[in-house]
Amino acid sequence: MKPKIHPEWVEAKVTCACGETFTSYSTKKVLRVEICSKCHPLFTGKQKIVDTEGRVEKFISKYKKTGNATKSKKKVASPE
């Protein structure tokens, strides 16, 4: 490794949104995460929809079908 180009590797305190805290190593001293192994559906076996930024609602509103949608066709010039 080249000297003086890599960030320092320190012990970090990780805090989850559920309240769980543990220590790990990172380039930052404090990390805040939304999901940890205590609350992730894969480890808990409980179904949970994780949508903190409203992405599901944005997707539904963007792609929901409306009755007044019209299809526009482009005219193609004939090679004559």
Count of discrete alpha- or pi-helical segments spanning 4 or more residues? 2
Overall CATH architecture of one domain: Irregular
Determine the CATH topology of one domain.
Answer: Rhinovirus 14, subunit 4
Q: What proportion of the residues is helical, as a percent range?
A: 10-25%
Structural class: alpha+beta
Oligomerization state: single chain
Fold and architecture overview:
This protein is of the alpha+beta class. The protein has a domain at 1-48: Irregular (Rhinovirus 14, subunit 4). The chain is built from 2 helices and 3 strands; from the N terminus they run βββαα. Strands 2-1-3 form a 3-stranded mixed beta sheet, with no helix packed on it. It is flat, with a radius of gyration of 25 Å. The N and C termini lie far apart (67 Å).
Task: List strands and helices in order, with pairings.
Layout: E1 10-16, E2 21-26, E3 30-33, H1 41-44, H2 55-63
Parallel strand pairs: 1-3
Antiparallel strand pairs: 1-2
What is the structure about, briefly put?
This protein is α+β, with helices and mostly antiparallel strands and 80 residues long.
Which features characterize this protein?
80 residues, alpha+beta, Rhinovirus 14, subunit 4, three-stranded mixed β-sheet, 3 strands, 16% helix, 21% strand
